[in-house]
């Protein structure tokens, strides 16, 4: 079996039935799978998805304090900007375009580290990156870890049920996982450590980085605007971390073909360009499936792409030394039909 088909831990209900059709589990089956795979007492190798949801639980008290103690229109605005635009755009810049698609390169590990730590540490890179390669390899097909055709809960709880790497990879396949992660700077387990922990990341390092990241940002927010701002932005990060899980279901049309002529040009899957994720995070998802390696996804005039603006800004600073931009290829191929142009590679 190809690496891409066996790198993720299959759910107990399987990806497809004997006829090769997508398995659409009942919500109760999905929830049962979710709690089973979060149980670290049953299997220590469940630690990474558990850790990811544990961080969200840790953000709940901030949300309660925000609503009942620190709520004001000013704080609501700050929370909106942080939770929607900054966290959203950072997810696109870091997890999506850099860690997964390598759409641009940093000058050195220092600037990579700064970009990685620019927002609250919540989503583990390995859960996002490896499964996202699988998503592109079999979008809307059985095996797609957040296949919108299997329903909302299938996608919403995918980071536990479908996205973690398999626990029984052979050494050669684990080495391929390491290759897919090496450029992110996240230090990986040896094969022996992987066999013990079931993950690429080591829990001690992951917990250490998480605590330092949150301590830094709480202090920074406190110094910027006092305890009210710190609590409000932590609450906003929690709302983002839950809300972002709805994206994959929405971004593939709820499993229905919602592509529109003149807006969605990629015909290979059901991905769609949506105004809101596009405007706040640069996720023009149909464009992205058309040109997954491009550091820019907003191709049309109205398609604001803040993630691209940030990458360009780093390029002008000399911190990003090269990127790929497929805008001109998109325009010649789909808008002003003509000979297809090669992507623009800017390198300093
Ligand atoms: Zn997609
Ligand atoms: Zn992608």
UniProtKB/TrEMBL annotation:
Keyword Thylakoid attached: no
Domain of life assignment: Bacteria
Chief location bin: membrane
Membrane association type: Multi-pass membrane protein
Keyword Hydrolase: no
EC number: 1.14.19.-
Annotated compartments: Membrane
Residue intervals passing through the bilayer: 47-68, 74-95, 214-242
Limits of the Fatty acid desaturase domain: 75-312
Enzyme class: oxidoreductase
Keywords attached to this entry: Fatty acid biosynthesis, Fatty acid metabolism, Iron, Lipid biosynthesis, Lipid metabolism, Membrane, Oxidoreductase, Transmembrane, Transmembrane helix
Example of a GO MF term: oxidoreductase activity
Family: Belongs to the fatty acid desaturase type 2 family.
PANTHER family recorded: ACYL-COA DESATURASE, DESATURASE 1, ISOFORM A-RELATED
Protein name per UniProt: Fatty acid desaturase
Native source organism of the sequence: Mucilaginibacter ximonensis
